[in-house]
Amino acid sequence: MKAKRIAALDIEAADPGSARAALLESLGLAGNSQTSLKVGEALISFTRAPSQPATTALTGLTIEVENLDEVKRRLAALNVHAEEGEELTGSRFIVVPPGATHGVTLKLRQA
Amino acid sequence: MIRKVHHVAVVVRSVDEALKFYRDALGLAVTESATVSEQGVKAVLLGLGEDEIELIEPLDPQSGVGRYLDKRGEGIHHICFETDDIEGEMEKAQAAGVRLIDTRPRRGLAGQVCFVHPSATGGVLVELAQPEKGRS
After folding, report:
1. A1 contacts in B (CB within 8 Å)?
2. CB distance from A50 to chain B under 8 Å?
């Protein structure tokens, strides 16, 4: 698979706004959105953890790939199940659940 | 200055087992592999184009990474941000009262690295890395 880059990271926190502010302030990062921040080309998004009390967790990783169809073929050949979808921008993606990826919700998106 | 995400590290029970997915199924290439004794882990970096993904396996269940794995299971362990001046970033952080795990840069798989304490970053474990020249 030819990957291009890390496109996004998802962080779950009990208080997503505070977690975002702490990361932003401690590292001197820039960011306008209340729910995300950008480092280089990667978007880091913060959402509320589904269960309370919860510790902050890095849950999701999005990777841009050059040829999503090739990735789908490779995974299908190994019987790895992936959900397919499409972004509002029209980019196609698949999501491989944590059970197949050693704990990561892995989104592979066509570049 | 922090430039970009250098890598995302995934803690796993067995790097060899995890490579069956990340290397063999996805087809990612291993760019570096080593035992990092200071951190008590076996670590492998795989290329993601401009960035990387790191698989880390604790060698000692009582180490920080070992305890993390025992408590939280497999999954993303930390984010590493790339900087071109790690000493400058550390000085800036310390001056701002940001709690660091390392007091000076140390050698890691990604170059000269240091860890920021999660208490300073909203619960996220952050690594800063200054890759060696010629690598990023």
Report:
1. 26-28
2. no
| Chain B neighbors of A56, CB-CB under 8 A | 118, 122-124
CB of B113 closer than 8 Å to CB of B128: yes
Q: What is the pLDDT of residues A68-103, one digit of tens each?
A: 999 999 999 989 999 999 999 999 999 999 999 999
Long-range contacts of A21-27 (CB under 8 A, 24+ apart): A21/B122, A22/B120, A22/B121, A22/B122, A22/B123, A23/B121, A23/B122, A23/B124, A23/B126, A26/B93, A26/B96, A26/B98, A26/B116, A26/B120, A26/B121, A26/B126, A27/B2, A27/B81, A27/B93, A27/B116, A27/B121, A27/B126
- Strands in chain A per DSSP E: 3-13, 36-39, 42-48, 57-65, 83-86, 92-96, 105-110
pLDDT class of B118 with cuts at 50, 70, 90: very high
B120, A71: Cβ pair inside 8 Å? no
pLDDT at B84: 94
Q: What is the ipTM of this complex?
A: 0.92
* pLDDT at position A28: 85
CB contact under 8 A, B49 and A64: yes
- Cβ-count burial B48-80 (b if 16+ within 10 Å, e if not): bbbbbbbbbbbeeeeebbbebbeeeebbbbbbb
Contact B123 A13 (CB under 8 A): yes
